[in-house]
Design a protein that fits this description.
The chain contains 10 helices and 11 strands. It is of the alpha/beta class.
């Protein structure tokens, strides 16, 4: 741990795995100050690339390999490629700590991590991210949800390079009007669009699961925002919600994703919590 990192004995120590647009935004919020929390460490594939950014922080966190984060932190924020999810999450949940997972789609390929968290008293948190109304879905799931359907429209850059598009030879770069490129389950979408549809997986985990949650994906050259519309039928309520998210520096992710993580962190030691 660097000499520059200091925290009170009661502070929750936070580590961030991945310094893309989301990781940096969360780190900057912690550096400005979130009550009861302290940024302890970060990890990045190429730490030298982030030297000048790190130098701009008020308190420089330790820069560590992923495997060392658990030694210095109570919570890890996973902001990395999905293939790294196990190496980031497993050490935390098996020591009774918390892992905040943004690569929710990758979690479906490592569902045993949930059992490990239960066995060892750890916790995996999938933040609300780009999806408003997730509290309503969670509440409805306490009763009986009959169906959940989601329609996503994204600008072309937000879908380019997805495995499903490559495997099916879909030339979305040339389309001039909205094109439905996928219809299926949230689990199928997570495999075909691993960097694009974490929001759909979060919805499925909150509700009726990845195999019953239905999804349409549209490549739409007429939009500049990531648009999600969700319709839920349950024994408690029928509701729909729609949100248009402004993309971050990474066109596959909305700006609100980082803000959702920051909101979660603020709840940890807040004297007032709103929402489940």
């Amino acid at each position: 741990m660097t000499d520059s990192f200091k925290s009170s004995r009661t502070d929750l120590r936070v580590a961030i795995a991945g310094l893309g647009p989301i990781g940096k935004k969360v780190a900057e919020a912690l550096d400005r100050g979130i009550e009861g929390l302290a940024l302890a460490a970060v990890s990045a594939q190429n730490p030298d690339k982030h030297c000048s950014w790190l130098a701009g922080l008020t308190v420089k966190p330790a820069v560590l390999p992923i495997g060392a984060l658990c030694d210095v932190a109570d919570i890890v924020i996973e902001c990395a490629p999905g293939k790294l999810i196990r190496s980031i999450v497993e050490p935390f949940v098996t020591t009774g700590k918390t892992a905040v997972v943004l690569s929710a789609g990758a979690l479906l390929d490592h569902e045993d991590l949930i059992a490990l968290a239960k066995q060892h008293g750890g916790q995996i948190v999938v933040p609300t991210g780009a999806l408003i109304g997730l509290d309503a879905v969670t509440a409805a799931a306490v009763g009986t949800i009959h169906s959940v359907r989601m329609v996503t429209r994204k600008p072309i850059p937000g879908l380019a390079g997805a495995p499903y598009i490559v495997e099916n030879n879909i030339d979305i770069e040339r389309i001039t009007e909205p094109l439905r490129i996928f219809e299926g389950t949230a689990r199928e979408a997570a495999k075909g669009f691993p960097a694009n549809l974490n929001v759909a997986v979060a919805l499925s985990l909150a509700g009726i699961g990845p195999d019953r949650t239905r999804l349409e994906i549209w490549a739409d050259p007429t939009v500049t925002r990531n648009i999600h519309r969700i319709e839920v039928e349950s024994d408690a309520a029928r509701f729909s919600m729609s949100i248009e998210n402004i993309p971050s520096e990474n066109p596959k992710t909305g700006r609100i994703t980082a803000l959702s993580v920051i909101a979660f962190l603020r709840k940890q030691r807040a004297s007032l919590r709103v929402g489940t």
